[in-house]
Amino acid sequence: MPTFVQILDFIGTFAFAISGIRLASAKRFDWFGAYVVGFVTAIGGGTIRDVLLDVTPGWMTNPIYLICTGLALLWVICFSRSLIRLNNTFFIFDTIGLALFTVVGVGKSLALGYPFWVAIIMGGMTGAAGGVIRDVFINEIPLIFRKEIYAMACIAGGVVYWLCDAIHLESYACQMITGITVFLSRILAVKYHICLPTLKGGENAANAD
Amino acid sequence: MPTFVQILDFIGTFAFAISGIRLASAKRFDWFGAYVVGFVTAIGGGTIRDVLLDVTPGWMTNPIYLICTGLALLWVICFSRSLIRLNNTFFIFDTIGLALFTVVGVGKSLALGYPFWVAIIMGGMTGAAGGVIRDVFINEIPLIFRKEIYAMACIAGGVVYWLCDAIHLESYACQMITGITVFLSRILAVKYHICLPTLKGGENAANAD
Amino acid sequence: MPTFVQILDFIGTFAFAISGIRLASAKRFDWFGAYVVGFVTAIGGGTIRDVLLDVTPGWMTNPIYLICTGLALLWVICFSRSLIRLNNTFFIFDTIGLALFTVVGVGKSLALGYPFWVAIIMGGMTGAAGGVIRDVFINEIPLIFRKEIYAMACIAGGVVYWLCDAIHLESYACQMITGITVFLSRILAVKYHICLPTLKGGENAANAD
Questions:
Q1: Is B25 within 8 Å of A52 when comparing Cβ atoms?
Q2: CA B51/CA B43 separation, integer angstroms
Q3: How many Å apart are CA A205 and CA B80, to the nearest integer?
Q4: Scanning B187, C21, C29, C53, which has the fewest C-beta atoms within 10 Å of its C-beta?
């Protein structure tokens, strides 16, 4: 069982690192900068989760995350021309990463004895916080706050995990169903342009505080 | 006693969440983004404090902070029109939140056995760090670094707590006087346009490093 | 031995605080904002390292870092005119700080029993993460991701530490050689305009995720 989760974790790491490296490259970062942004995109969410759960972050016990990010950087350096045509492929990869990270985040929190509402937040954080740090580093407003059903897909997955657990499904089944929920939520949201309403606070709000 | 501090904590959470949600709405964040920014504004300072003090952040042991932020979001969605007219009310709320968070931050650090100079910093961090994360998320230079006596009011409150403790006042009295100090410092600073001097480093400084 | 490391730590703190305060002053921060940015530049990297290593951050056990930053602020306030002419001096100071922080970061991680590849990352983080937080606070893309051999000098130093340790040099000698490596790497990189290649991801990458 842990091996299965680990394999998924590594695939997700690769996909997220690619996402960070590509956005860094669009901002003319050098190789080191791109590597760091890729690495932080991949492990940032899990690291914040582990700091909050007071356990040692996974990447400090296993160098595979560093290697994964290195391979992602190599990939982008070698195939930068063809990457643009692969946008759809990367979208799928990124969504797989999102699903896997959510499952890992919820599962780890539950294993540590936290209640479900904490685990759901930790799932969403594992999936989405890396992308927020990435966007802060490239000096953009985090994408997930404005445009897409992204973190909401993680939250939906977390709730489904909770329901599956409530009807006493095996943890393996819970994780499969959760992952599929996250994956499909995001794919369908993008395909049918489903998004959350925007707040209308007015221009004066900015002066309020 | 803990119940009294908890109640104050919840009022402060609501006020801070409103502040985050309003600024997010001015940037056209969706509901999810606004919720996250509101939540982080409310619990960000306390979370960094708790991570540094190596205790479990308060919001992970009690879902009231999530609920508070949800109510704040609902409030902004329902009453967005009238919010602009309420700027002064929110200024008062926000200042109450600042005072309460400072008291909670100083008190918690002292209870954990840290010296007073650490507790004063933790008080300021509890009050002001959430707003810094908020401003980073909406891609603005943090307001408190440039414009207002904000965090300085927390620091002043922390020093007053220290003085009250030094003359052996009851902890209840220390907390009341600290809260009032923070509240009045900020109100008076805004009313009389008191602000700290600005540094004049010159344009070449930006090339220095 | 600890006293030697501590003295170096304080010199590095002063240099890094100056760097933060000068950039803050270029953005018209007030004294408080400049102090906070200087402080975070100085202790930010070490604090993230200590949170990840699960030990209490150094500045919470010793007020010298706060005092150092206060002296740095006083210096900038008093000598702001002459600071521009001192750019080269500050470049040297900053590079000394970088070298010292790397040595402290690697040494502390090894002392806590972490493997070398973690220690190297922690060395780089101690040296460079404070500057990243500084740049996020002043709302700029972190400089180290784009322009200079900066964090790479820390990484080089960490690798040299590892090699020195592998041939069983005294820890004092390891630290001296590591520090000199970091210092010379950065000086030479700036003098001869050595920099890492930039990624060419194309404009469409920004739309990918």
A1: no
A2: 12
A3: 10
A4: B187
Residues 49-108 of B with CB under 8 A from C: 51-52, 54
Q: Does C143 touch chain B (CB under 8 A)?
A: yes
Structure tokens at C12: 């590095």
Query: Residue A203: its pLDDT value, please?
Result: 45
- Is pLDDT of C18 > 80? yes
The string of pLDDT tens digits covering residues C93-141 is 788 888 989 998 999 999 999 999 999 999 999 988 998 999 999 888 8
DSSP secondary structure code for residue C148 in this structure: -
Q: What is the pTM of this model?
A: 0.88
Cα–Cα distance measured from residue A49 to residue C64, given in angstroms and rounded to the nearest whole number: 31
In degrees and rounded to multiples of 5, residue C15 shows phi and psi of -60, -45
B139 shares contact with chain A (CB less than 8 Å): yes
Nearest by Cα to C134 from B203, B50, B142? B142
Q: Which residues contact B51 (CB under 8 A, 6 or more apart)?
A: A51, A52, B57, C51
C25 with B200: Cβ contact below 8 A: yes
Buried b / exposed e across C146-163, counting CB within 10 Å, b at 16+? Answer: bbbbbbbbbbbbbbbbbe
Taking 90 as the threshold, does the pLDDT of residue C53 lie above it?
Answer: yes
Spatial contact of A158 and A126, defined as CB atoms under 8 Å apart: no
